[in-house]
Structure formats: C-alpha cells, structure tokens
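Predicting holo structure, nicotinamide-adenine-dinucleotide bound.
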Amino acid sequence: MTTTGCAPTGNILAEPRLTIDGKLVPSADDGVFANVNPATEEVIGQTYDATAYDMDRAIAAARRAFDETSWSTGHAFRKRCLLQLHEALGNHRELLRSVVVAEAGAPVVLTRTMQLDTPLSENLRWPAEMIDTFAWERDIGDSDLFGVHSWRRVLKEPVGVVGLIIPWNFPVETTLNKLGFALATGNTVVVKPAPDTPWNATHIGRIIAEETDIPPGVVNVVPSADHLRGEQLVDDPRVDMISFTGSTATGRRIQERGAATSKRLLLELGGKSAHIVLDDADFPSVLGRCAFSTCVHSGQGCALLSRVLVPRSRYEEAVELIAAGFARVPYGDPTDPAHIQGPLVSARQRVRVLDYIRVGREEGAWLVLGGGRPAHLPRGYYVEPTLFADVTTEMRIAQEEIFGPVLTVLSYEDEDDAVRIANDSPYGLSGAVSTASNERGMAIARRIRTGSFSVNGGVFHGADAPYGGYKASGLGRQTGPEGFEIHLETKTVAGTGTL
Ligand code: NAD
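Done. Tokens:
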C-alpha cells in the first residue's frame, strides 16, 4: 500500500472511490491499493483502501438510513429504485464488461451470460417484481388461548443492516444477487468487494449515487486490501446480517465471530461437485464436454464439476475421451471471444493451484495432461487445463476445493457405489448426472446431498431459483423465494377488540 492517493489517469475503467452515505469519497488516510490485470500482470490502476474509520462511517450511514428513513417500509419506492438501478446498470453494460474482464480475468465470452449479461438482466428485476407479489402480512386467524379472544397477524420486516462480503470469481453476479435481494426486502447494506476485483463494485456504487433515487446510506461500497474490513462488518453490533460468498474457511470464521453479536448469516461457500456418468450415457458427447465444465473461467467457480465418476468397466475408454476434450480447451487471453479459460485471478491463486497439482502427483494420481504453466503464455497467471486419473476418494485432490482448471477422474463399481463416492465429501454444493434415462437421473438427484443438481446438462441457475449448499457448502439460500425470505424477520402481532 502507498499513501499517495489516486492521481487521475484517464483510465475510464478505474473508479477508485468509496461510496459512503451517498457520496463518492477517498479513504480517510488517502491510502490506495493496486488493481492488477491477471492476464498481463500489469497494474491497471489504484483503488482507495478503506480504513477502519471509513468502514465505521459506512456502517453508521447504513444504520441511520435503515432506522431513520422510510426505505424499510416504502415498498413501491423500493421497487421503483431497483428498476431504476437495473436500467442504469444496463446503460453501463460495456464499461462493466471491460472491467470484469480486466480485473477478474473473466473470458469475455462468459460476460455474455453468468459474468455479466444474465445478472444485469435478472438479479435486480426479479426481486424488485417480487415486492408486489410477496405476502408482507398475513392473517392467521383468531385465538382464544388463556380465555383471551385475539386477532392475529404475521408481519414480514427487513432484518436491518446487511454486510455483503463479495468474492473475486463472479464479482458482478454475486454483488447484484446480494444487492437485489437485500434491497428489495428493505434492508440497507455495506458492500465489501474482494481486494482483487474492486472496480466493478465501486462503479456500481457510483452509478447508484449519481443515477438513482436510492437514498444516501442505503448502499455503501467499501473496498479494501485488508480482509479485516470484512471482519469489522462481522464484529459490529450495528450490522444485523452477513451475506457472504467465498471460502469455507472464511465462512466458518464468520460463523464463529458472528456468534458474539448473534448475526443472521447467509453463507455460500466452497464445493467439490461430482459428475456421475452412468453406463448408458452417450460417452463421446458427455465425456468430450467434461473439460468445459471444469476449465471454464479457469475452474474458479464454486459449482463447477471438479470430480467425474465413470464406470470401472469402461474406465480406459472414459479417460481417453475426457483427455481428448482437455487437449482441445481453448484458453489464453480473456479478451479473445474464442477462449473459455483465462488466467487465475492472482499469483497467489496460481501458487495454490500448482501446489494442489504437486499434492496430486505425490498422492499417486496419474497426471494425464497439463499440470504446469503453459509455455506459450509467459505473462499472466495461467495454469494448463489439467487432468488427473486413477484418483481415489480419500486423496486430497478428490476432497478439497482446488479452484483451478483441474479435473479428477474416479471410478465406481455400480450405481450405489457412484452415489456413495459423490456424497463422500465435506461439501454439498452441486453435482450432475449424465444418463440415457431422465428417470434414472432424477433417482440419482434425490440421493445426492447437495443444494443443486443437474440432470443431463440442465441449468439450475436463475434469480428465481434458490441456490446454496448442504454441509460445508453453506447456510441458507440466495435467490428464489428462499433467498427473499432469508433477508426478512417475522413478527407475530396479536390484539383484542377490532382492528
Ligand atoms: P476468501 O473467502 O478469504 O475471501 C472472500 C471475501 O471474504 C473477500 O471479500 C475477502 O476480503 C473477505 N474476507 C476474507 N477474510 C475475511 C474475514 N475474516 N472476515 C470477513 N471477510 C473476510 O477467499 P480467497 O482467500 O479470496 O480465496 C481462497 C479460496 O477460497 C479459493 O482458492 C477458493 O477455493 C475459495 N473461494 C471460493 C469461492 C466460492 O464462490 N465458493 C469464491 C472465492 C474463493
């Protein structure tokens, strides 16, 4: 970190400022941190590095906006503001596209879907429209308990101030999911972006401040290089809820620290999702595509399929078909629309992924393909598409989240064995089955302990579809009606006489 502040650079992608109480401001001490393009390793600009004082001000602003304005009760106003933001962000689509490619290393082709265009089209609109149809109040009938004749109503009210802690892998998608649902339900928020990907969030803060009627303090955006700014949100008693996406280790720390102030938690954590390929599946087509569902965005997706389970009787044939797909993965420069795999987000992540590849070799797995830094890409945090076969379920590379373009192939004896291996994981985020029979696929889906599951390539993502994990993959659901409800408190009111 330096303390020179942010001199204007003419780089239109840069938005170095914090958003606090409706104003775009530098950090209190003018400190900054570098934003690095992972495809070139070049510093593309600076972002103001929030201090503890800045975070404190942001929390105070969110608290005041919740306690002292009509944001929490004004349903129609909230809906109008969210749709206004939806439109404003759409007007800045190309700027946000360039930012997410430059700072996250996201392949531009992915910005046509999950990295940008899909969240821009639905993550604010869907919860905004839910405001009109949601049962904010319901009559549960009269009661004569204790001889008192009472009418009774159940009210749904926002939780309060929500801290949104964002990861770097799908930053716009995660931020808009969290913002849309937290705001539609009447909460106010403090957004803490990941240190590697601050500008998409600082731009969203600027657009809110400059182009919407969202009142000051309702949305605050506080970037920092220091993870402790996130922890400050977790510790502060003025914050009622934390909505976090990221690693299981950090999620567990948030659970521990959040207990001190009884935080409501929405945690979307890691995964090690298994793809079960049944013996009746179309092997060439299904196995040829395995590389895509592992290597897309360099494997930096929590629900990506990083284990594939194939029948032992057809093991060699299966490995050959998967390897052929891996050899064809188009990867490299993320601005090239042909590439589905770009760089890892940082040098630190590359070290981590290469370390897992070393562990896999030491554990005795067979490195079929890849395993190193690509010789033709000397700059950028790239790792080759990597395939491990002869993997057994107790190996670390079969159990731990690598978050890189690394697939592990395991074999199973029969369907029960496949289900057992798929479930033999601390995680429970997602999974998939490929089979000639959808009935067989659904029967497998019912037996897998995960929060989402794909049968024959079905897509479960969507603002209207609940998303989250079993076991170490998280707590609660974001998106869908469940993702709306989790941001609400429930109040039962009873009275006598007539209302
Ligand atoms: P992380 O979980 O540590 O960071 C995610 C976010 O949490 C960032 O905004 C970070 O600043 C914040 N944070 C970190 N420590 C915190 C704390 N103690 N209290 C509050 N907030 C805190 O993830 P990482 O270190 O960037 O990546 C490490 C690994 O996490 C990856 O290799 C990958 O396996 C996993 N990961 C998973 C996802 C996912 O979507 N499941 C996303 C990102 C990373």
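Residues 3-269+474-493 form a domain with the Aldehyde Dehydrogenase; Chain A, domain 1 fold (CATH 3.40.605.10).
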